[in-house]
């Protein structure tokens, strides 16, 4: 199983860079970054850098870790432009990019930036076409496409990505549409969830693959969960009693290791750990080291 790190965009770039370099030096496999322009809150004044520019800066200063968006909002950029951006970053990083994409969901940034938000079904329909556009841009030669929402007219994307294929990750757990889009186009898939949620969602993804005649083993699966890891039983008891909506992992390093084994048994190829619950910068470094040494056994 791969283990990857997700730094909160609200911290300074210097801190994100330091955490990314620490991840690279301490055997983490990847670093992911959220593609949002602001917090999902009434107060949107907190610093929140743009994702792809940040990843380009991180990619130029690292040598090994995979880098990707978790995940790009399709409504923010034309998919042909996004394909060009990702291909460029793949060259900057010598083939370490994962193009993560989803339908888009955060309404406040659409409203503030004057971007059409559309309905859920309309956003999903655009995501389906966007995946086709991206695949067309990375195919040999120029790309032509005429859909309901996007068109390409002998579109050039040179140089092509270093990787063949460029990994396309689709994020989301919608069972009727998102997982079907994943089955059609994705090389990787991501969802927030515990092992039970992952087993349930993966069974549905596999069924969509069967309907489409695709081998489900072609799609790598990744999960995200908040981490609360400590030797302080009082703190852990408090966290277990909290009414947290997001999937989470709570326990001592040994208990976390057992939970991670459940993810692996469920068929998860990569566990992505956000730093949102890890405290200040010094505590984050300590938690990263404890996790990678005592949980990942590296």
- Catalogue the unreliable spans: none
Secondary-structure content class: alpha/beta
Mean pLDDT: 98
CATH topology: TIM Barrel
Helix amount, in percent? 40-55%
Within the largest sheet, what's the order of strands? 1-2-3-5-8-9-10-13
**Number of beta-strand segments:** 13
Based on the coordinates given, report the CATH architecture. Answer: Alpha-Beta Barrel
Helix count equals 10
- What Rg is obtained from the alpha carbons, in whole angstroms? 19 Å
Q: What is the rounded distance between the termini?
A: 12 Å
Strand composition percent:
15-25%
What string gives the helices and strands in order?
A: EHEHEEHEHHEEEHEHEEHEHEH
Total count of domains = 1
Note the main sheet: 8 strands, parallel, barrel
Give a written overview of the molecule.
This protein is 43% helix and 19% strand. With 298 residues, it is an alpha/beta fold. The protein has one domain: Luciferase-like domain (TIM Barrel, Alpha-Beta Barrel). The protein has an 8-stranded parallel β-barrel, surrounded by 7 helices. Strands 6-7 form a two-stranded antiparallel ribbon. Strand 9, helix 7 and strand 10 form a beta-alpha-beta unit. Helix 2 runs parallel beside helix 3. It is globular and about 60 Å long. The model has no long low-confidence stretch (mean pLDDT 98).
